[in-house]
Amino acid sequence: RRINLLLKQATLPKIPNKPYDWREIQLAPGITKDYILEGEFTKNQENLIFYGGVGTGKTFLSTLIALNLMKKQGKRVKFYTAASNALLEANEKGDLGKFLNQIEKLDLLILDELGYIPLHKQGAELLFQVISMCYETKSIIVTTNLPFSQWNNVFGDPILTEAVIDRLIHHSHLIIFNGESHRYKDSISQR
Questions:
Q1: Which residue in 144, 3, 10 sits closest to 79, CA to CA?
Q2: 17-63 residue pLDDT tens
Q3: pTM recorded for the entire structure
Q4: What residues does the AAA+ ATPase domain cover (predicted)?
C-alpha cells in the first residue's frame, strides 16, 4: 500500500516493458550498473548527470532507478520535466513553500530534459533555489542533451548557470549516453 502511494506521488513517465540496454552507456570511472540501478549513490547524497542525445535512454534509466528505490527501499522520489513550469505554477498559486517542503522530504529528485527549452528568469531562479536546497542533503538525477558549456542558454545568466553547475557536479557522476535514438532505431526496424 505504501509503495502504491510512493509510485502515485512520484509522477513517473511510462517506460517500455523491456530490459534496459546498457551497451551504449559510458559509466563514470569506478561506477557500476548496480551502483546506479540500486540507488547506492543516494546513500551519499550524490547526483547523477545523464548526458546524451535525444532518445538514448536517459529518461528510461532514471525511471528504472526510481522504481527500484521505491519498490525495494521505500524511498521517496519525484519526477519533474524541467520544462513543466511546476515551480512557477506553485509560486503563482502561493504554494511555493508547500512545494519546497515536499521536495525536502524526498530521497531523490529527478529533473528530466533540462535544457530542452530555455527557462524564464523567474523559473531559472526558482530551479536554482531547489538545487541549492538539495545540495549535499539529497540526490538529484538530471537528464540533458546539452553540454555544460550550453547551459547558459537555459538559465540565461552566466553567474546563475555557474552556480547551478557547481552545485550539481560537486558529488556527482557523469553518465554519457552514446548512440542513436532508440525510438528512431525501433521505427526503422518495424518497416
A1: 10
A2: 889 999 999 999 999 999 999 999 999 999 999 999 998 999 999 99
A3: 0.92
A4: 44-180
